[in-house]
Amino acid sequence: MPLKEGVNLIEGNLIAIGGLTIHRKPIAFIHEIIRSKIKGLNVLTFGGGPEIDLLVAADCINRVEAAYVGFEILGFAPNFRKAVENKKIEFKECTEYSIMAGLLATTFGASFIPSKTLMGSDIKGKLGLRTIRSPFKDEELIAYPPIEPDVAIIHIQRSDMYGNAHLEGVTAIDDQLIKASKKVILTVEEIILPEKIMENPSKTRISSSLVDAVIKVPYGAHPTSCFPYYAYDLWHINEIIEYSRSGKIEEYLKKYVSSLDSFQDYLDKIGKNSLTRVKPKQ
Amino acid sequence: MRDFTIDELMVTCMAREVEDRSIVLQGLTTPLATVAYYLAKATHAPNAYIYQLAGNILTHDLKALPVSMLFNEFQAMSGSLHVRSQMEAYETIFTKSSSIVEFFRPAQIDKYGNVNNSVIGNYESPKVRLPGAFGIPDALGIYPKILVYCPRHEKRVFVEKVDFISGLGIFDREKYRDKEVRIISNLGTLRLDNKTQEMQLITKHPGISIEEIKENTSFDLTIPKTIQETELPTEHQISLIRSKIDPNGTRRLEMLGGKERLSLLLDIIEKESKIK
Questions:
Q1: Assembly ipTM
Q2: What residues contact residue B11 under an 8 Å CB cut-off, 6+ apart?
Q3: Of residues B55, B127, B265, nearest to A234 (C-beta)
Q4: Which of B84, B125, B167 sits opposite A121 (nearest CB)?
Q5: Domain span at residue A124?
Q6: Which of A36, B89, B229, B235 is the most buried (most CB within 10 A)?
Q7: Residue B16's domain spans which residues?
């Protein structure tokens, strides 16, 4: 399926994005969302990075739900930060466990998951979480309500044409997002034969029964990483920061996204040198 | 005095918190903490488990070294015997909390050990919207020992009261009497005791005066009558850090900010992209 068709599958109130900060973000898909001028998205991600920053810069976002949005060692996600400070977007600040427990509630078919985590944190109040008394022990617990994304978009290493997939390196909560979301779109570095999957089914971390679309996009996470194919391109992520700092993020979006027809055009623009220096050395 | 830098002194202090068979949780791109964990494993804690987000290091031969910035995930995976999901990591947090070592780096910390990585200023109209606290608020409620590192001990970090409680430090003193917060900064080491509820200075780093530490702390520190100097790194530790664990100096990234950090980062990744 081409990316343009994949974007047509986006619907509903909450869109989940896989990966973690500068690892395995579905950037090719994000570019296509920006090109399609989709607006008003509510996005959930565990730890957000360049994908959130670009969506915010392109004015596609209404609300972000995440435990973190930033560029790790490179610091702030500049457009996200500015948009929250200027109240241009809503930020629902979560924590790791608040997201994980919410997804767990969905997959367990429970109306809440009780937990001791987050007691005393101001985030509890901001999330509007309620507490419940344990029927077994003298303790007050937080009741985490279910989180059920309408669509999850995940970039992974490889799968067969049906979506039976491997997941390597930083796995984050992608297994949970896939199980809890109503619809799942995978973008993959490689499509392999089902026979290859059958050779070692213990490696299959995602079952095709949960996957609605598979789209092959080599380098589809660039400038974030996709182990073991390539590391994150910190030079390019820094370029996003520099464009943003000098108030020229629109130029960046035009140069690398909106004036181009495809993600392949973007990779051509990035150039071979940039793509090879993030390749692991043997 | 031996030849060492302040980042190396902090690394050795942090390494001392790791015990043999500790379960060490390592976040992403926190190089100072990463170097400390590997130093512990290479010296007094060979059987420590290093749980990285990219996989569990269960090997004993330190195959994954040296620490890398650009190829962080690749380095972690090369020494890994098991890859687990985040939910599996949390299962460990709940069941083995007393064995866990995990250092957090807050943007602000107050005299009650509360930490803030959410906002500077008012929450609804923040002066600075920080990236977020990730799992810190969850873990603080569970770990009996809270470990904090602050590479820049300044008034704006050590505040009287945090602008927003991302995570609660000490609470319910009756129930959690043994809970404690330990802080390692670039000036000294501090401890918050749940019995006394006071933040105490424990040691000062060589060449640092008590006055200097007070001047850089917004709240009143309890200063015991005698203050020892922080234990110095050994030559063996320094040599391991420089030659085997972190020859490219990724640990220094956390000591710097702004342009200086960026320029060191670009130097390191340039070098790493050409190695081998």
A1: 0.95
A2: B32, B35, B36, B39, B233, B241, B251
A3: B265
A4: B167
A5: 112-145
A6: B89
A7: 6-274
